[in-house]
């Protein structure tokens, strides 16, 4: 038996003797996976070298490690990352954070082996096998396996089941990794795990995971990683490190969250101390995330900071700056924590940069501390590096909080003077300020200036203007602003609701009913509980009981909650016709909701479960750049409203979640059984036309040639079940795999059949985006 190893040991290893002294053993370079070696031969070692390696080998899950000091990698200073600190204009400033790059994290893998000795993968020489027929067959398999694709490879291995043993399959797998055919090695490994003679091999799983991760095959690397975890073993430090770097190297959705999860396990479960470059790479990705940082991001950043400090590594200046920036972006700012970080920066000998001072300005402005804002402003001026546009906005916000709108307006004019024009965020803030104090003429003139600049994103300012007119009871001006908004930008549900409130207040119920119907029929706007209650109140007050009952039936269907004063009037009206008022809320999924969930889950919707898997919640996620998603988001939010946590905000976020409930257990068990997406065995029973429609709307698209493409995650076996289900509906399709995603294509007449099946369930506003080109041709032919 000869041990092969994936690591190069080119430096002395220090091992602690029982007496406490250190013994240094120098080991020559052994690189058994070098391409210069014969792939079919593993060289013999002398018996003395075998005994030496046995003495130096430790089990993977032992906590003994070599006492080498932790030193920051100088390569961590080689590259920079840019985080948007302010938005939107040529005058914006960019925060620069230097946390090192992923390359430095990869380079640190060379040093990981010196801190924990690797477990050997033991394979037997072909020449040592007693049977000549086995030697020839094994050599033939080593030659044939890398040249075949997945399906043919499995058939080839299945044909050899009668004689292949675990030792033989292990040799083939190791051979594939030695010749850099790591994906083929993974397929052989996966085939091995399905055989009844398979016994888990920790060393083989570790080497395979490491090689796959180095090639950025994070999905397959994670599968092997999970195999190790499912065996009750703790993966090696190198495996944790490589998997985190692989996730960070990908721009796919959800990879950053997975990187954080693996990093946290590395420390909490494995008890490892990651290299400084890994801490920096993860922190760099954290502050570079798109969108505003959430409270979860702050907690993760604090965890990284805590680990860097407690392990005695050097905390770089940009870590302090990034952490202060994250805290300043929160709705509730922790000023004490920010001041503590500033003090730590001073102790470390770092001066506060412009980015830190701007972050402080933001934090103090949210607190309404004018004195602190002025003092910070002077610090910013003292840096003599230019004032970013967003700093003016923060200062305007600070004075607005204390009610000094005149001073806020003066700052806005100063911004125009120094920057050569105000930014979009500047106009939004100053119009919001003057509207709150009901300065009508000033607000109108500012809005007119804003429109004349030709800048986009006018909607927030129109919403503020319309709110002001509503508070003042000026319906004519409100209606005029509403019509202007329809002409200049795409309105949203918020401005429609304000206009609807105004119509009901003045008693124009006929126009209110028309606007309500327009909202209901428009998928991008739609109605909500507020608009229904507004119209219901108008009909009840006017004595129009027939229309009031229709609105109530709509609210019951959509499971909206009726306001208490209106419910008392409804009780009396419905009692006249001996009809009991039903409670509009019922915590049971409707048939339509169940079919919608199946389609969305096929499209990639996530389900999160608690530790006991007794309660589950649905994680709804939509893409901002997808017009189809913006339309679908409103519809889904409305469809599952009773399952969502109560929120006062009318704007629907791109990501929201349902409440935790046991009703979602069926979907968690079938689609996310182990926290990973799976395709259920009985999926063919649940692929109704409505489910297919929502799958297509959520994660499908129409190609430039007019074909239909559906996105799907899961195993090969699960994809085959979906394909068979589509073929049972007389639709042929083609499947391609890219990364961990399968793409199912329906071409020509098959796309037409698919569209005819799902068209009744596709939202009207999305049909133009999704209708196949062949469908129009087919219609003309008829």
UniProtKB/TrEMBL annotation:
One Pfam family this sequence matches? PPR
Entry GO CC? chloroplast
Q: Which PROSITE patterns match?
A: PPR
Which keywords does this chain's UniProt record carry? Chloroplast, mRNA processing, mRNA splicing, Plastid, Repeat, Transit peptide
Q: What is its main location?
A: plastid
Homology family: Belongs to the PPR family. P subfamily.
Annotated PPR repeat ranges: 492-526, 528-562
Annotated GO MF terms: endonuclease activity
Note whether Repeat occurs among the keywords.
yes
Q: Where is the Homing endonuclease LAGLIDADG domain?
A: 594-751
**Superkingdom of the organism of origin:** Eukaryota
Q: Which GO terms describe its biological process?
A: Group II intron splicing; mRNA cis splicing, via spliceosome; photosystem I assembly
Q: Where in the cell is it found?
A: Plastid, Chloroplast
UniProt name for this protein: Protein ORGANELLE TRANSCRIPT PROCESSING 51
